[in-house]
Each structure stands twice: as structure tokens, then as C-alpha cells.
Amino acid sequence: MPENLLPTGHRRIEQMRMQGIVKKFPGVLAVDHVDFDVKAGEIHALLGENGAGKSTLMKILYGLYHPEEGHIYLNDQSVVIRSPNHAIQHGIGMIHQHFMLVPSLTVAENVALGLKSSRGLILDLEVVSKRIRELSEIYGLQVNPNSPIWQLAVGEQQRVEILRALYRGAALLILDEPTAVLTPQEVDDLFRILNQMTADGHALIFISHKLHEVLAISHRITVLRDGKRVYSIPAESATKEMLAQMMVGRPVVLRYDLPPIEPGPALLRLEGVCATSDRGDEGLKNVSLNVHAGEIVGVAGVSGNGQRELAQVIAGMRSITAGKIWLNNDDVTSHSPAAMNQHGLSHIPEARMTDGVIKNFTVAENFVLQNHGRKPYAWGGLFMNFRSITRQCKTAIKDYEIKTPSHETPIKSLSGGNIQKLVLARELSRQPRVLIAAQPTRGVDIGASEYIHHRLLEERTKGTAILLISEDLDEILALSDRIVVMYEGAIVGAVKRDAADVRTLGLMMAGSKVTV
Amino acid sequence: MITDILKASVAASAIRLATPYIFASLGETFGQRSGVLNLGVDGIMLLGAFAAYYAVFETGNLLLGVLAALIVGMLLGLAMAFISVTLQAEQGISGIGLYLFGLGLSELLFQKTVVTPTPIDGFPRVNLPILTDLPVLGEIFFHHNLLVYVAFALVPISAFVLNRTTFGLQIRAVGQNPEAADAMGISVARVRYMTVTLGGGFAGLAGASLSIALLNIFQSNLTSGQGFIAVALVYFGAWRPYWVMGGALLFSTVNALQLQVKTIENALGINVPSEFAVMAPYVVTIITLIFASKRVEQPTALTKPFERGES
User: Is there a contact between A18 and A72 (Cβ–Cβ < 8 Å)?
Assistant: First the structure.
């Protein structure tokens, strides 16, 4: 095989350089004079918080956005990338965070999408399937070309994305948060594939905010913050602590010491709870669970294995088909959300923007969403007491360090982290006995995540029973006294904090029975 | 004996009357598969019907009539595409606007030109060698005008285009996940412009099939809502050309029975109020739509404008 060719038969990109890239959106400088480069046979990680400009920079490289200033060089030749099509022609591929697949179409159809057919106007799916099988062989990416996408697991769908990029001759591949939805084992699989690709001469850009993954897979690391490049370093001389500090701009605590607490009585009890999912199948299968006062129980699992249904059932948002639920020793089975709240439950919902707040309402209105009809926010349950609402909300804004122009700002113009802090302020202001925290830091920057974690630990010290549902295994491991793992709607395992390790949890998340 | 003849004539007219439904709902299928709901089909049909009628009225040339309907339909489809794709207007409302525009303009033009409904010589029935002379079957299947055959021929062609061609794959992808199609280098706007314009052309042909092939006349509100039933048929047929054709035949059978209601009454010796017969197609529309469930083919991006945004 000639020097400059990849196993797919396409040309290598020896070097890609972006120089002085500037991209403005109305009101924000998203990317501010950033230089970035990657070479063949190398994984260059791009690290940064939400809104740091990582995705924007990469969308420029992929032709989805056009920069106001700056140049892109491929093999020292200046190029202008006008569209994704154009990027593909140049050998640049991108695996998006949200997969760009059409669920109702098959693997082969998704790969053929937008490509010229060897039979002119008529589809040549047999030819496409044959080539998919060849590429599967070369890179060890097992996938059936005739399966419809919706039938595939998330990890398999990602393989389809990678195959499609390779099919199109991608020599440089951009991976936008590729591990966000994978189990630890699937991550291992992905890393094996990525290592093989670099060995074969591909250039890879790996976007992430997970520090240990970045350290494990990449050769070089570049950190972006507020649209600027703040740091570039070879991976072997980087540490988690310094990277976190670069990302946030100040020292960050990555581990928490949980003060030992003698757990109190079980405040939340579930016994044999079953529920139907939105798809109409068994969303929860015979779930039994206790959460004691002063205890954080973490619920781990790959997205879509019943965590959402579990939170909704406890919050009274989804009806159950069998089983019983107790709050504070009161039978609250099939009670409404309002009744659950009366029994001392607070809920930080997973779908923040739809279930947590009303987007077009102001900060203050969202703050009193549940208690607006009660003292001190209303007189006689009818007339709203705006002076009291304003006062209480302003206190919360100060206490919870919520960054907002005023309490009358529509909530939708706040950042994810600040919206989540407001939800937290509202839920904790009711002084709950039981707290459900579902994905409390998803899409929230490190600074706010850290703050939310501290608040949860404070609640634990106060003796609140906390159920922490998260797809972020690091978060679960950092905060939980006990961890239960959900798979296909059932609890498949439970481990104590000290006995928990990523490998065992990963196996359980993938459905294997593990005894600890 | 009488009932046999009746059955044959009901079946034959059911096939004939399916023509406008098939044209219009196949066109609508293309648009909806790509994510655009065009509720203005009836308005396009009316203007297409008038264009065809007027061209034949003035020149006597039937092909010119078909061409006029096709062009008028495509221009209106193009307008709908501009409104819904480029301007990203709410599709349901703009479709109703297009319908009212077609309804009003077709009547205005008719009043300014022809004034009184005057019959014209439309497409004659084609006599096929041997086939037409077959007993019963010949009358049912092989004694129709040209546009009937064109409509039925378009069914397998549409299915082939949607399922077997690169363009069809693009249409399906754009209707299901426009972001993915965009990321794969497909122009979502281009695909939608093409399907909606094509759908407009088909709706124009549907109008022509009424005014110069089935009824051979034009009058105010000639379609009496058939374009809306065509939209419903697309849902009923779950966005598949063959199923849509099945739906069209079901409705045209109801229509045919309605036209023959007096003959049927005489044959069976019963009496049905004519209002019920007129209501029948619409009642059937509602009932069937209740039972037509959502399916995999339902374009998830239907009625949603696409804008390349931040995710």
C-alpha cells in the first residue's frame, strides 16, 4: 500500500491547521481567534465546558458554520469549506453528539444517503452493503447493513456513524462527545477502534469534557474557555486537576469526602413497582428500593433503562401498574404530584426545560411555580403577593449564586447551570424529606455542577433521603453511599460505595448479572 | 341480472372517480414524505381544473389542457414551497390560504371569461383491442379515458421513485430527520421545493382530470372538497403509494354508489334520503382516519420547517 493512502484507499490528511478562527453569533463571540491543528496518526482532544466554543469550532471545520475570520489549511493548502458536502470531499468527517441517522431507514440506506449511486438515479444498496461489510472487516466494526437504525443499540448506531464517515473517505474524523451515551465497555470498544484508526494514519479530533477519557485516549490536549484557546499540552504531561482548572478558570474539587452519617429510617420505600413506558412496553419491572434519611442512593444505568420512569413514578407523574410507594411511612401509591409534594417530596426533573420550568415565565414566576397559591406567596390562596415573591426570589438568587440580570428576566435566557440552580433553590426551599435528583448536572458547566453537588451533600447532612439518578458514572461514584444499577426497567444490582468500581458497574449496566 | 350490470357500472365508475384522488394524494404523498403538509391541494385542483378547461374551451386541444393544468399546478406548488420552506410559515395556515386563493381566483376567472358552465369535449374513452370487448371486465377495467390510466400508472412509478431511487431516499431522510440529511450534504430546501412543486403539478392534473376527462365542465367549486379528502387519504394510506391508491378506490366506490343511489334504491326497493348519500364520503373520511394509526413511515418532521441551527 502506498505511503499516503489509508486502508480504505483514500488519501491521508498529513496535517490540518486552523488559524485565527473567529465566529460571532448575535451577542456572543463564540470563537475568538483560535488556532488548532491535528496530524495524521494523532488524536488531538478538544476540551472545554458547555459553550466554550468546541462544537462551534468543529462545525466550522465541517462547513456547517462559516467563520468571520481565519483560515483553514489542509496539507499546507488553504481551503474554504462551504458545506458538509465540501468537507466530505476534502476527507473530513464528523460524528455528531446527536447521531445524524434516520431511524426508519436501514444501515445501508443511511450510508447511501446523499451519495452518488453506481446505477445513476436508482439506488445500489447491494453495492453499498458489500462495501460496508469490507469496511467492517478492516476496522472490526460489526454491523448488519440491513438492520433498521431504530433496532440498534446506541453503541451500534455510533459504529454506523463511524462506518459512514469511513465509507465517504474520511481521513480526518471529528468526534463530538462520542462517549456521552456509551457504557464503559462500549467506551473501551470505541477507544480500540480509534486507536486502530490512528495507527492506520487517520487524524482524529476528540471533543469531550470528561477528563479521564481525554487523558486515556489522546496524544495532545487543547483547552478552550469562553471561545479562547487557553492551553495546549501533550497528554502525557497533563493531569486531571490542571485540566479542570484550565477549563473552569479556577481550582476545582474533583472528589468529595462524604462525612460518615448513621442513616436514619427509610423515608422513601418502593415495593414491587411496575409501570408502562411511553413506548407501551414494561418500563419498570418489579422495582423495590429503600432510601434512608441522610443517605444518597445513586441510580446508574445507560439512558433509557427505566431511570426516567422511576423518577416519574415517585414524583407522581406516571401511573403505576403494580406495587406500592411509601413516603415517610405514608402510603402514597398513585398520588398526584401535588400530594407527593405535601408528603415532603422534592423533585429535580430530568427534562429541565419541559418539566422543571416554564420557559417564557420569569425567574420569580418559576421560583413560585408550586407554592404560588400558598403563604407567603399568596393571600387567601387567591391573590398573589408579589412583594413577598420578589423578596424570597431575590434571597434565593443571592443564596444560590444564580447569575441573572433580574428576577423578572425570562428563565429561557439563563444558562443551563443557572436554570438548574433555580430549580434546586425552589425544590430545596420547601425543605424536603425526600429529594429525587434526576440528571442534576446534565448540560451544566463544571462550576455549577460542583455547586449543585455541594448542595446535595448539605441536604444529606441535614438528613434528607436523596435518590440521585444519573447517567454520569463519575457523578454517581462521587456522591452515592449506595449504588443501584438499572437495566431494562429492573434493578440488576446494588453495591456499597466502597465496593463500587467502574468495571463491575459497567458490566451490570450492560445487563450482565454480577455478584459483588 | 340487473344487479350484475349495476355492480359492473359501479365498479367502472369507482375506478374512473378514483382518478383525481390518486393524482392529488400521490402528489401530496411526495410533499409529506419530505416533511411539508400542503393543505392547499383543493385550491390547486380548482385552478388546475379551470386552466385545463379554459385551454380546451378556447383551443379544443386536450393535451394543451393537460399541460396548462400541470404548469399552473407546479407554479402554485412552487409558491407553497416558497411560503413553507423559504419563509418558514406555518404550513397548516398557509395551506388554507392557498385553498381560499384557488377557490376565489378560479371562480373569478371563470366569471370573467366563460360565465356560464358550458360542456366541452373532454378525453374520450379509449377502446382497446380485445380487452375492451371482454365481458364485464372489459367495461370495468378497459373502457376508460387516458387520464385514468395515467393516474394508475403513476402509483407504481411513485412507489419506485420513493423506495428505489437516490432521490426517494433523500425525500424519506429529509422528512424523517432533516438535520441528518443536511449533515450528509443533502439540501433540505432543494428536496422540499422539488416534492412540493411536483405535488402541485399532480394536484393540477387532478383538477384537469375532473374538468376535461370526467365531468367535462367547469363551475364554481368544482372539486367540492376532494382535495381535502386527498390529504386525508395520504394519512389513511400511511404515506405509501399503493395504500393511498387503495384509499382512493375506497372513497371513489362510496362516490360511485352515491351517484347510483337512485338506481340502487329501485333495484333493492328501499329509500335513502339523498343527504345521507352526499354525506357518505366525508363520514367515511372521518371514520377511517380514526382507525388509521401512526406508522413508521410517518414523517417525523412533517410541518416542521428546517433551519440549520445550534444543537
Answer: yes
In terms of Cα–Cα distance, which of A449, A511, A482, A514 is closest to A299? A482
Contacts of A116 (CB under 8 A, 6+ apart): B166
Q: What is the ipTM of this complex?
A: 0.83
Q: In the prediction, which pLDDT does B293 show?
A: 57
Query: Which grid coordinates belong to A249?
Result: 478558570
Domain ranges in chain B are: 2-116+137-295
Q: Any idea which of A72-86, A169-183, B217-231 has the lowest mean pLDDT? A: A169-183
Chain B neighbors of A66, CB-CB under 8 A: none
Query: Rounded CA gap, B74 and B38, in Å?
Result: 13
Is residue A102 less than 8 Å (CB to CB) from chain B? yes
Could you tell me if A12 and A6 are in contact, meaning their C-beta atoms sit under 8 angstroms apart? yes
**Cβ-count burial of B176 within 10 angstroms (0-12 exposed, 13-18 middle, 19+ buried)?**
buried
Architecture of the domain made up of B2-116+137-295 = Orthogonal Bundle (1.10)
Beta bridge partners of A231: A223
Does the predicted model carry a pTM greater than 0.80? no
- What residues contact A380, with CB distance under 8 A and at least 6 apart? none
Nearest chain B alpha carbon to A111: B184
State the cell numbers at A46.
478538544
**C-alpha neighbours within 13 Å on the C-beta side of residue B237:** 30
Kindly state the cell numbers that stand for A22: 473567529
Q: With an 8 Å Cβ cutoff, are A121 and B167 in contact?
A: yes
